[in-house]
Amino acid sequence: MIKNNRKWLCWTTLALVLLLAVGTVFAAGVVDHKAVLSGRVSGQDLASAGQDVREGDVLVRVETVAGAQPAVRAAVNGVVREVLVRPGDTIQAGKVVVRVERR
Protein backbone atom coordinates (compact mmCIF):
# COMPACT_ATOMS: atom_id res chain seq x y z
CA MET A 1 0.00 0.00 0.00
CA ILE A 2 2.81 2.43 0.86
CA LYS A 3 4.51 1.55 -2.42
CA ASN A 4 1.34 2.43 -4.38
CA ASN A 5 0.98 5.75 -2.52
CA ARG A 6 4.56 6.71 -3.37
CA LYS A 7 4.02 5.80 -7.02
CA TRP A 8 0.81 7.82 -7.14
CA LEU A 9 2.52 10.76 -5.44
CA CYS A 10 5.42 10.62 -7.88
CA TRP A 11 3.14 10.60 -10.95
CA THR A 12 0.95 13.37 -9.55
CA THR A 13 3.98 15.54 -8.83
CA LEU A 14 5.35 14.95 -12.32
CA ALA A 15 1.99 15.86 -13.88
CA LEU A 16 1.77 19.08 -11.85
CA VAL A 17 5.30 20.11 -12.80
CA LEU A 18 4.54 19.53 -16.49
CA LEU A 19 1.31 21.52 -16.27
CA LEU A 20 3.13 24.37 -14.57
CA ALA A 21 5.86 24.36 -17.23
CA VAL A 22 3.35 24.41 -20.11
CA GLY A 23 1.34 27.17 -18.44
CA THR A 24 4.45 29.27 -17.95
CA VAL A 25 5.43 28.95 -21.61
CA PHE A 26 2.01 30.07 -22.83
CA ALA A 27 1.61 32.83 -20.23
CA ALA A 28 5.05 34.28 -21.00
CA GLY A 29 3.87 35.14 -24.52
CA VAL A 30 1.13 37.58 -23.43
CA VAL A 31 1.97 40.74 -21.51
CA ASP A 32 -0.68 42.64 -19.54
CA HIS A 33 -0.36 46.41 -19.87
CA LYS A 34 -1.64 48.54 -16.98
CA ALA A 35 -2.70 52.17 -17.06
CA VAL A 36 -0.30 54.63 -15.45
CA LEU A 37 -2.89 57.44 -15.41
CA SER A 38 -6.51 57.55 -14.32
CA GLY A 39 -9.15 59.21 -16.49
CA ARG A 40 -11.68 58.77 -19.25
CA VAL A 41 -10.47 56.76 -22.26
CA SER A 42 -10.07 58.85 -25.39
CA GLY A 43 -10.71 57.45 -28.86
CA GLN A 44 -7.40 58.99 -29.96
CA ASP A 45 -4.59 56.41 -30.42
CA LEU A 46 -6.69 53.60 -28.92
CA ALA A 47 -5.14 50.25 -29.87
CA SER A 48 -7.23 47.56 -31.51
CA ALA A 49 -7.02 43.77 -31.49
CA GLY A 50 -4.70 42.47 -34.21
CA GLN A 51 -2.68 45.68 -34.39
CA ASP A 52 1.12 45.35 -34.59
CA VAL A 53 2.85 47.47 -31.96
CA ARG A 54 6.42 48.34 -31.08
CA GLU A 55 7.80 49.08 -27.64
CA GLY A 56 6.89 52.66 -26.72
CA ASP A 57 3.80 52.94 -28.95
CA VAL A 58 0.80 54.60 -27.28
CA LEU A 59 -1.93 52.01 -26.69
CA VAL A 60 -4.44 54.08 -24.69
CA ARG A 61 -4.89 57.79 -24.03
CA VAL A 62 -7.04 59.30 -21.30
CA GLU A 63 -8.59 62.73 -21.01
CA THR A 64 -7.08 64.77 -18.17
CA VAL A 65 -7.29 68.43 -17.21
CA ALA A 66 -4.15 68.91 -19.33
CA GLY A 67 -5.76 67.25 -22.38
CA ALA A 68 -5.36 63.76 -23.83
CA GLN A 69 -2.33 62.02 -22.28
CA PRO A 70 -0.83 58.54 -22.87
CA ALA A 71 -2.06 56.21 -20.14
CA VAL A 72 -0.49 53.03 -21.57
CA ARG A 73 2.50 52.48 -23.83
CA ALA A 74 3.61 49.16 -25.27
CA ALA A 75 6.28 47.54 -23.13
CA VAL A 76 7.12 44.93 -25.81
CA ASN A 77 7.04 44.48 -29.57
CA GLY A 78 4.09 42.34 -30.59
CA VAL A 79 0.44 42.09 -31.56
CA VAL A 80 -2.46 43.46 -29.54
CA ARG A 81 -4.56 40.46 -28.50
CA GLU A 82 -7.16 42.18 -26.33
CA VAL A 83 -8.26 45.73 -25.52
CA LEU A 84 -10.27 45.76 -22.31
CA VAL A 85 -11.55 49.36 -22.55
CA ARG A 86 -13.57 51.47 -24.96
CA PRO A 87 -13.69 55.22 -25.59
CA GLY A 88 -15.57 56.89 -22.75
CA ASP A 89 -14.71 54.24 -20.13
CA THR A 90 -13.22 55.58 -16.91
CA ILE A 91 -10.09 53.75 -15.80
CA GLN A 92 -7.89 53.85 -12.74
CA ALA A 93 -4.10 53.74 -12.72
CA GLY A 94 -2.93 50.16 -12.26
CA LYS A 95 -5.86 48.58 -14.13
CA VAL A 96 -4.97 46.09 -16.90
CA VAL A 97 -6.36 47.61 -20.10
CA VAL A 98 -4.47 45.93 -22.98
CA ARG A 99 -2.90 42.52 -23.56
CA VAL A 100 -0.07 42.21 -26.10
CA GLU A 101 1.42 38.97 -27.42
CA ARG A 102 5.21 39.19 -27.76
CA ARG A 103 6.87 38.73 -31.12
Could you explain how this protein is built, in words?
By secondary structure, the chain is an alpha+beta fold. Helix content is 26%, strand content 38%. It has one helix and eight strands, in the order H-E-E-E-E-E-E-E-E. The chain has one helix spanning 2-28; strands spanning 30-34, 39-41, 52-53, 58-64, 67-73, 78-83, 90-91, 96-102. The strands form two sheets. The protein has a four-stranded antiparallel sheet with strand order 1-8-6-3. It is elongated. The chain starts with a helix and ends with a strand. The mean pLDDT is 88.
Uncertain runs: none
What shape does the CA trace take? elongated
Order of strands in the sheet with the most strands? 1-8-6-3
Backbone structural class: alpha+beta
Quaternary state of the chains: single chain
Largest sheet: 4 strands, antiparallel
Mean pLDDT: 88
Which helices and strands appear, and what pairs or packs with what?
Elements: H1 2-28, E1 30-34, E2 39-41, E3 52-53, E4 58-64, E5 67-73, E6 78-83, E7 90-91, E8 96-102
Antiparallel strand pairs: 1-8, 2-4, 2-7, 3-6, 4-5, 6-8
